[in-house]
Amino acid sequence: MKKLVNDPSDYVDEMLEGMVAAYPDRVRRLDGTKVLVRSDAPVDGKVGVVSGGGSGHEPTHAGYIGDGMLDGAAAGEVFTSPTADELSEMVQACDGGEGVLCVVKNYEGDVMNFDTAAEMAEMEDVEVAQVVVNDDVAVEDSLYTSGRRGVCGTILVHKAVGAKAADGGSLEEVQAVGEKVIDNVRTMGMALTSCITPEKGEETFDLGEDEIELGIGIHGEPGTERTEMMTADEVAEHLTENVLADLDPDDGDDVVSIVNGMGGTPLSELFIVNRKVQQILDDRGLETWDAWVGDYMTSLDMMGCSVTVCRVDDELKELLGAAVDTPALKR
Predict the structure, then answer these.
(1) What is the pLDDT of residues 256-282, one digit of tens each?
(2) 280: number of Cβ within 10 Å
(3) What would the pLDDT profile of 5-51 be if each residue is shown by its tens digit?
(4) What is the distance between the alpha carbons of residues 309 and 158, in angstroms, rounded to a whole number?
(5) What is the set of active-site residues?
(6) Which of 81, 77, 78 is nearest to 51 (CA)?
(7) Among residues 188, 247, 185, which one has the least CA distance to residue 216?
(8) Which residues contact 291 (CB under 8 A, 6 or more apart)?
(9) HSE-up of 253 (CA within 13 Å, CB side)?
């Protein structure tokens, strides 16, 4: 293993220290926790929006803390849910008097701990609502979850609910926007290589030189199908067609697409995949309102990508296009 780490057991702590050192005017760390919040949290009179999950998916989640997106993000150990205690502290720290929305990816540990955290925060008179993202079309009832996994579509949920909260929406209205995105977003991913966790120091699954894995998640778990190496166009077609088959958009629908890197793939290769994705969307009679290409939700150093498609109406266009200023996303 070659990684820029010190003691693997300090991986998450030192990462968070480095983020605060890079953005001291934007984020602060809650004492004794692995939680980062906006430097001005709580924002009075605004619904708080928080998220969190295991580390290793950077810039998710803390990279999206800032105006127009998240108020707080909790980091668990690598690929491990944050504790309920820390999630509850985050919720309370981000309550500006209008309640807090928790954006949760559909993994059993995350869902269970966020549920407990909400109960704890409500005992402190904080109103809490929740949305659970389950955009992965590849797997249902996996090692990590009951139902579908929450993956890169979560970023669009963060963006839309963050914009609605910044615009003065009520907790009920912000939650409704989150559910709307969830109803209209689908994702599928693939891997050229496994990832290597700092603690384990070796690949989480074995892939031959000429093999790839289709339908992977974001925790180093293997996918649904192992096949021989495919071209970029073939990968893009497989992922996009599976996403569209599940989403079932109508001819002429406007969509936002994301070609997301898994952490170890050059941006140039993601653009090659995006080239084919856009051709497929055009051939299907869909209008790409916005196309995102880059590393938004990763799996450490895994080489690979995912494709996300989200159907959008005028409301979602306004929210996804609204101003945002975070370390990882600016508009």
Answers:
(1) 999 999 999 999 999 999 999 999 999
(2) 20
(3) 999 999 999 999 999 999 999 999 999 999 999 999 999 999 999 99
(4) 15
(5) 57, 219
(6) 81
(7) 188
(8) 256, 257, 258, 259, 274, 277, 278
(9) 19
Q: How far apart are CA 311 and CA 306, in angstroms?
A: 17
Read off the tokens for 267: 């941006």
Cβ distance 100 to 70 under 8 Å?
no
The pTM score is 0.96
